[in-house]
Structures are given as C-alpha cells and as structure tokens.
Amino acid sequence: AVPNRIFSGIQPSGGLTLGNYLGALRRFAQKQDEGIESIYCIVDMHAITVWQDPAKLRHATRELTAAYIASGIDPEKSVLFNQSQVSAHAELGWIFNCVARLGWMNRMTQFKDKTAGKNAEASSLGLYAYPALMAADILAYKATHVPVGDDQKQHVELTRDIAAKFNHDFGVNFFPMPEPVIEGAATRVMSLRDGTKKMSKSDPSDASRINLTDDADTIAKKLRKAVTDPEPLPETAEGLASRAEARNLVNIYAALTNSSVEAVLGEFAGQGFGTFKPKLAELAVSVLSPISTEMTRLMQDTGEIDRILSRGAERAEAIARPILDDVYDIIGM
Ligand code: ADP
Ligand code: NA
C-alpha cells in the first residue's frame, strides 16, 4: 500500500479565523504529532486569484507562517513552505489544466459561491482554474490524505478525478487517489451573525468571526453579541437540529475542548446562553491567546521566518522534483 502522506494548504489572504484554526491549523498539528509525514503550504498562488496588495501579501505570508508554528506545526518535523517558491506547483497545475474538463470545473460550487451576486465574467481565469492548481499542490507530493474543512471536500474529489484521468489517459498507475480527511466537531464553523454562512475571513462583518489575533475583550464581546435563541441548551444533540446558531456555539465549545457535543450538553443542558457564552469566551481566550502571543513574538524576527520558509521550500522541492520528472517522462516531454 502507498504510505500515508498528508498535504494541506491555507491562503495568505488576510487574518485567520477560529474556523481556520479549528478546521485546519489545529488538526494539522495533531496529524503531525501522530507521526504522519506532513507537508503544509502557504498557498500564495491561490491568494492571487483575487487581487492582493503586494506588501500585504508579503506580510500575510509571514503571518500565516507564524500562525502555523504558533499552532504547533514544527518546521523540523513537518515540511512548511510557501507555494510560489516551489515551481512544481505551477508546472503540474498547467498540465492538470490540460487534464481537467471544462464540465468538471463548471460544477465547482465554491466558484459559484465566490462570484454570487457579482459579474462572474469579470473574475480571473485563475479563480476558475484554482481547483486544478489545488490538485497539483496535492499530487506533486503524491499525498494520500488531505485534512480540510467541509468547504474543500468537492475540490479533493476533483483532485481524485484528475488523478484517475491522468492515470487512464497515459495508461499508468502513477498518482494515488487522495482522500479528504474531514473530522471532529468543527468541520464547518459558522458565522456568529448568521448560522447559514460559514465563518470566513472574507465576510465584510468583523463581528461575524473570531480572528486568531482578537484580544480577550473583543472575543468576549463578539460571543456576547453572537446570534442565538432564548431557549436553554437541550439534553441531546437532536435538540439542536433546527437551532443552527446554538448548535454552532456548542460545536465550537466541543472542538475547543477536544470533546463531543454530547459531553458539552451533559455539562450545560438546561442552562441558557447567558451562562454558556461567558464560559465559551473564557475557553476561547485560553486557547487563542497563547497562539496570538506566540505569533507576535515570531513576527518580530521576519528574517528567521523567511529562513524557515526557504528551508521548507528546499525540502518540498526535493520531494516534488523527482515526481515532476516522472510526469514529464510519462507525457513525452
Ligand atoms: P478561507 O476559507 O477562510 O478563505 P482558506 O480557503 O485558505 O480559508 O482555507 C484554509 C483551510 O481552513 C481549509 O482547510 C478550509 O477548509 C478551512 N476552513 C476555512 N473556513 C472554515 C470554517 N469556517 N470552518 C472550518 N474550516 C474552515
Ligand atoms: Na476555503
């Protein structure tokens, strides 16, 4: 069997949220600590599918590197690097543009969501092709497992389709079929203002999200104002079925304590959100404040961050280059 190898990435497109932490960063660190070979990327080439201010992009790349490390990614154990420093991504991305079918890309719901209410024809070709580049990110390392939030499931499925079509078209058994790993209580952290939308750094309302860098007062205030309902917490998870906002806060509590929704309800059933929210705020602050403190410390030495990224890129290149050499050979180049 193919040995397990994990790949995942995050865009350096501005502040990180509690959703990115619970759905991605913290789980990446857990996988690393389980001893699985892990490759984690700052996907800056994905970020430029929408225009980025160059100085802010450079800052966000370093800040995301600091966030990875502050969340427990050890750049000696995991490979931690910046996508644009390893050209295999762009090279394989182009090859996959030629493997993927237009019909497949047309079915990607994230492109539809990101252009909803806007003129889709005015968005970049890169935004449309982004999932083929994501397939290249994963398959340039022959990764077998991709820990992601629920929103990325369709893109990992597309990656499998691309891998299968490549193998079929060239009569090889070359790329593995990578599997999305979507697990835990926080696969989809929702907005604090609207239980039908995911918590996102691109939401125009700052009150809708908790940022990794929010201070204790801001976190407490945002949670106090989070939309809920007047009912007390129920005895069982079914009691949250039609209460999206309440369910979201319970999910966050469960994820932050590494426990289950049932365990949280066991502790809080019968109590109202007036009691629950301050407890949740205290918990969120206790988890996030050491991370933001460490990020601030790391950001004081950007030279060291750049050195970590250069070393990571060398290690990533050493894995990806022989795979790209084989790909070129297979396709006759
Ligand atoms: P964003 O969606 O915030 O722009 P990215 O697209 O860079 O961030 O996603 C980085 C990772 O964070 C992905 O694995 C994604 O699934 C995860 N993620 C993003 N938002 C959430 C959320 N609200 N809940 C759970 N996971 C999330
Ligand atoms: Na996303």
UniProtKB/TrEMBL annotation:
Pfam families tied to this protein: tRNA-synt_1b
GO molecular function: ATP binding; tryptophan-tRNA ligase activity
SUPFAM superfamilies: Nucleotidylyl transferase
Keywords in alphabetical order: Aminoacyl-tRNA synthetase, ATP-binding, Cytoplasm, Ligase, Nucleotide-binding, Protein biosynthesis
UniProt organism field: Falsigemmobacter faecalis
Family statement: Belongs to the class-I aminoacyl-tRNA synthetase family.
Gene that encodes the chain: trpS
This protein's GO CC annotations: cytosol
GO biological process: tryptophanyl-tRNA aminoacylation
CDD domains given in the database record: TrpRS_core
Catalytic activity: tRNA(Trp) + L-tryptophan + ATP = L-tryptophyl-tRNA(Trp) + AMP + diphosphate + H(+)
Sequence motif 'HIGH' region, location on chain: 12-20
Primary localization: cytoplasm
Residues that, per the record, bind ATP: Q11, P12, S13, G19, N20, G149, D150, D151, V189, K198, M199, S200, K201, S202
Record protein name field: Tryptophan--tRNA ligase
Record localization: Cytoplasm
Assembly and binders: Homodimer.
EC id: 6.1.1.2
Location of the motif 'KMSKS' region: 198-202
Annotated binding of L-tryptophan, by residue: D137
InterPro entries associated with the record: aa-tRNA-synth_I_CS (IPR001412), aa-tRNA-synth_Ic (IPR002305), Rossmann-like_a/b/a_fold (IPR014729), Trp-tRNA-ligase (IPR002306), Trp-tRNA-ligase_bac-type (IPR024109), Trp-tRNA_synthetase (IPR050203)
